Amino acid sequence: MKQYQLIALLLMVLGMAMFSNRVNAQQMTTQDATLSPTEKSIITIASLTAKGDLENLKPALNNGLEAGLTVNQVKEVIVHLYAYCGFPRSIRGQQTFMEVLDERKAKGINDIVGADASAISGNGTKYERGKAILAELTKTPQAGPLKGYSAFAPAIDTFLKEHLFADIFERDILTYAQRELVTIAVISTIGDADPMLQGHLSISLNVGVSPDKLKEFITIIKETAGRKKAKSAKKVLDEVLKNRTE
């Protein structure tokens, strides 16, 4: 009799443990399925900066800091996006951020500065390091002769690998996933760059941004860049997700 009671007790404990694991897994899935407040802020800040909408950028920067982004993370978002929309937009974004920080300081708000970028200690030339990072992001070997625009204008291939994927992507203030959110926000906002948007949406999936998060991303772009840009970005996203499924 005692043996049966012991077995029953063990089964009950096992059942409770399995139920707990299912609940935890469900909670994890729910959390992963939606953009976090900091991710939403990264997308909004990147899009508004790329658009040059400084009036709406100010409250977005405030919201980003309140959501938990450090000062250095916000700076890095605005630094990163210059590679896709140019120095003029990026510098105006940084100047606007300076104004926001001054206003917050005057109100007695002390924002967390956060960590600086670590020194780069990778082996090999910048070109080789950038090439390796690009291969990691795209999950595609970067071997063989140059093709397409890279073969047509080899200098841009060098700049892309040495500067964008080595100088910028190697910096550790933002994760690869965060940098991809910046990138797709900028490309969607400037528009008419579907092949590049398609590539970076695919990279976003590669680095752990879920399809549900990317669908939510479209709703933010609709608010920051307008219905037309959001519709165009959604069309590209639908194609990327379709190809992934197939």
TrEMBL record:
It comes from Flavobacterium subsaxonicum WB 4.1-42 = DSM 21790. It holds the Pfam family CMD. Residues 1-25 form the signal peptide. GO terms for molecular function: peroxiredoxin activity. It comes from the Bacteria. Residues 29-90, 154-239 form the Carboxymuconolactone decarboxylase-like domain. This is Carboxymuconolactone decarboxylase. Keywords: Signal. InterPro entries: 4CMD/NDH-1_regulator, AhpD-like, CMD-like. Coiled coil: none annotated.
